[in-house]
Amino acid sequence: MGSPVHPSLSEETVLRPKRNSATTSFQLTFVRGPDAGVVLVVDGAAACPLLLGTSEVCSVRLRDPEVSRRHASLDVYDTYLRVRDLGSKNGTFVNDTRVGEALLTGGEEIQIGSTVARVDIEVKSKPIPVSPDTSFGPVLGSSLAMRRLYPLCRRLAESDVPLVIEGETGTGKEVMAEALHAASRRATGPFVVFDCTAVPASLLESALFGHEKGAFTGAASARAGVFEEAHGGTLLIDEIGDLEKSLQSKLLRAIQKSEIRRLGGSRWVKVDVRLIAATRRDLDKEVQAGRFRDDLFFRLAVARIALPPLRDRRDDIEPLARHFWELYGGREKPFPVHLLDRLLSHSWPGNVRELANTVARLVALGELADSYSELFRQPLPIEGEDGEFALARDFIENVVGQNLPLAEAREQVLREFERRYVVHLLKLHGGDSARAAAASGIGERYLRMIRARVRPAT
Ligand SMILES: Nc1ncnc2c1ncn2[C@@H]1O[C@H](COP(=O)(O)OP(=O)(O)OP(=O)(O)O)[C@@H](O)[C@H]1O
C-alpha cells in the first residue's frame, strides 16, 4: 500500500499548483482497521492528490470493506494536509466530526469506514521546482502557482499520455490544451476541439466518431467525426464530465484500441490522436457518484493539470490586464493604472475570460471608464416582459459598441439568447427540465448545462 498502482501515473504527472516554494509533508499511520500498521507519506513537494479507497484505481488501496471504492483524497495545500471526501457512502471523519473537506495541521485522526489513521506533520520541507518563465506558449502567468506548472507542462507536451485539465470556467483550459499541442511533436498536425455540451445528445456519437451515409434520418452523406479529423494531432474533449454514460464506454474503447467505427459503419478505423479532456466538474466526485466511468477516468487521467482560479493568483491580474489592453487595441493609450486597485480587488468569478472582457470594455470606453460603474458587470441582461424587442436591440448594440473581437461578442450574444430561451422554456413547462428539453429538441443534460451557466442572472 502507499505506492501508486497506476502503471504510468507518477507523482510528477499530477500537477497541482501550490502557493509556497517549499512545502510540508505529512505522515499517516494507520492505527485501526485491516491496514493497521501501514505508514504513508503525503509528500507536499510531489503535489499529488492521493486517492484512498478500495478501487484498483486508488493510489492508496485499502482492504476495509466499509470503505467506498473512491472514498477520499489527500493532498498538501499550502502548509495543510487537505482531506476531501469524494461522496463516500459512510463519510469521512476528522476527530469524530464528519467533513466534506478539511485542512489539517497534524495531530488529528482521520476515520473512513472502520479504518483510522493518525496524522503527523513532517518537519522537513522540500523546495518545489519553479520555472523562471512567465508564460507557456500562449498561456500567460507569472504567479508562483502558474510558474510551478510550466516545467511539468513542458514534460507533458513531450509525451503522448492522455491528460485531464481541470479548472473553473475561463481559467484557460482550452488555451492550455492548445499550448500543449503547439509544444508537442504533433504541432504540425490538427488541433481539434470538441465541446460535449455544444452538441445535442442525439448527435454526439456521430460528432465524435462520424457516420456513414444513411446511418440515420438526415445523414445524406458520410461524415468523419472529430477523432478522424484529429488524426495525427490532438483532440481536446471539452466538458467531458457532461458526456452520457453510453458514450463514455465507446470513448473508452476508442482510447484503448486507438480505433473508432463510424455510426452505421462496419469497419474499424485506426486513429492516432493525443487526447486531452477538460472539465469544470470535479471528476473524482463524478466517478464516486457513479456518473462517470471509473475505468474511463483511469485511462484519461494519466496526468492531471489543475488550473487555479484567478482569485488564487492575483499576481497575474495586472500582467494579464496589460496584455489584453494591448491585444484589444489600447496600445496608443496609456494603460489606466488608476483602475488597478479595482481590478485587483475584484473576485473574478469568470476568471481570465471575465478579465479579458472587462479590459475590452475598458479599451472601448476610454476616458468614460473612470465614471463607469458597470465596468465589472456583464452587458445588460434583458429583463422584464415589456418592450423586449427594444431591450434585445439595446443589448446587441451594447455588445457591438464594446468593439470586442467577433468571437467574444458572438459568445456574449449567444449566451444571453440561450439564457432567455431556457428561462422562457422552463416557465412554459412548469420548471420540468425533461419536458422542456423534449419540447425544444435538445438533450436534458445540455439544457441543465445552460441553466447552470445562466443561473446567476435568472
Ligand atoms: N493564462 C492565460 N493567458 C492568456 N490568455 C488566457 C489565459 N487563460 C485564459 N485566457 C483567455 O481567456 C479566455 C478563456 O480561456 P479558455 O477558453 O481557455 O478557458 P476555459 O477554462 O476553457 O473556459 P470554459 O470552461 O468556459 O470553456 C480565452 O480568450 C483565453 O485566450
From TrEMBL:
<dbReference type="Pfam" id="PF00158">
    <property type="entry name" value="Sigma54_activat"/>
</dbReference>
<dbReference type="InterPro" id="IPR025944">
    <property type="entry name" value="Sigma_54_int_dom_CS"/>
</dbReference>
<dbReference type="InterPro" id="IPR003593">
    <property type="entry name" value="AAA+_ATPase"/>
</dbReference>
<keyword id="KW-0067">ATP-binding</keyword>
<keyword id="KW-0805">Transcription regulation</keyword>
<keyword id="KW-0238">DNA-binding</keyword>
<dbReference type="InterPro" id="IPR025662">
    <property type="entry name" value="Sigma_54_int_dom_ATP-bd_1"/>
</dbReference>
<dbReference type="InterPro" id="IPR000253">
    <property type="entry name" value="FHA_dom"/>
</dbReference>
<dbReference type="Pfam" id="PF25601">
    <property type="entry name" value="AAA_lid_14"/>
</dbReference>
<dbReference type="Pfam" id="PF00498">
    <property type="entry name" value="FHA"/>
</dbReference>
<feature type="domain" description="FHA">
    <location>
        <begin position="50"/>
        <end position="99"/>
    </location>
</feature>
<dbReference type="InterPro" id="IPR027417">
    <property type="entry name" value="P-loop_NTPase"/>
</dbReference>
<feature type="domain" description="Sigma-54 factor interaction">
    <location>
        <begin position="139"/>
        <end position="364"/>
    </location>
</feature>
<protein>
    <submittedName>
        <fullName>Sigma 54-interacting transcriptional regulator</fullName>
    </submittedName>
</protein>
<dbReference type="InterPro" id="IPR002078">
    <property type="entry name" value="Sigma_54_int"/>
</dbReference>
<dbReference type="InterPro" id="IPR025943">
    <property type="entry name" value="Sigma_54_int_dom_ATP-bd_2"/>
</dbReference>
<dbReference type="InterPro" id="IPR058031">
    <property type="entry name" value="AAA_lid_NorR"/>
</dbReference>
<dbReference type="InterPro" id="IPR008984">
    <property type="entry name" value="SMAD_FHA_dom_sf"/>
</dbReference>
<keyword id="KW-0804">Transcription</keyword>
<keyword id="KW-0547">Nucleotide-binding</keyword>
